[in-house]
User: Fold this.
Amino acid sequence: MWIGGAILGLAALTGSLVVGLGCYAFSAPGYEGERTDHFDGERFHNPGNAPEHGPADLLRWQTSRRPGPWSAPTDTAAGRPPPRRVGTGELRVTFVGHSTVLIQMDGLNILTDPMWSERASPIGWAGPMRVRPPGIRFRDLPPIDVVLISHNHYDHLDLPTLARLWRTHGPRIFVPLGDAALLAGEGIKGTTELDWWQEAPLSGDVRLVCVPAQHFSQRGTCDRNRTLWAGYVIEGPAGRVYFAGDTGYGPHFAAIRERLGPPRLALLPIGAYRPRWFMRRAHLSPADAVEAGGVLGAQRSMAIHFGTFRLGDDGRDEPLDDLAAALEGAGVARDHFWALGFGEGRDVPPTPSGEDARQERAGH
Assistant:
């Protein structure tokens, strides 16, 4: 049987699959470094030490599940190839699927949590399987300059896709603390590790800031929280883009706005949120995402992490239905929180200034 990883994206195996493999089946190398306010010398923890569920909670969920409907995998047409680049001050996003988004801004092409594999799993014959193909074919990608990895779960850090990108595009790859060793083991060299609030230049006028998230890390049976999880803010002439990665609701949203300012666009996860008693610490619900966009002061928000892999008990279409209801309940216009189709690309309106900006934020 699959434990939380098949559901939460980490695919750690129990029972017969790990017999004879020992404690470290599929486990990733852990981070070694000095203690910080979120690292105790061995394991990382969430902002404010947000508690996590234990094995008893997992067993309770697995024995009382009421999953919503998911249709059989479908072969849908890919979206149109994105433009090769956009100019300085311009911002365009294309939703590939799950947490994979192509961000084009200020002459750079940036991919978040690239995932083109059929399964989010360490093995090819079991684990969460795609219900729809990536919205953009790999061969239709423009030159990829930067790859951002939020954490090491299989649905976010996909080694086959990263190796393919490394061979064909040679991008700079940024990961949270501890994940570089995993990539190096696959021959992917030169990966840059970042801690929360560390930054790195992406070009002469674009910078990347690694920011906190409320989640966890794990790829195998004995490596839980041995590497960091994170979100990112990209800032340049086009403004700020916030990629939340995978996260529950917490104080980090207010901290990000306070330290870095409101984003022009916030990419916020909305799926794998049921049952709430089990998922709320690690995953936003659609209503949480709407609230987070408001706390961030985002000019626009965009939904990610839905409709691709069956990870929680919410049905395939439930996140979008609940997002529409949450927006209506909060009095937020749908144009302020996008749910792009798979493979759909869209230009992000420029950031208004003065009175227009105040009205935009109030409308959000």
Observations:
- The two ends are 43 Å apart (CA to CA).
- DSSP finds nine helices and 14 strands in the chain.
- The chain has a mean pLDDT of 89.
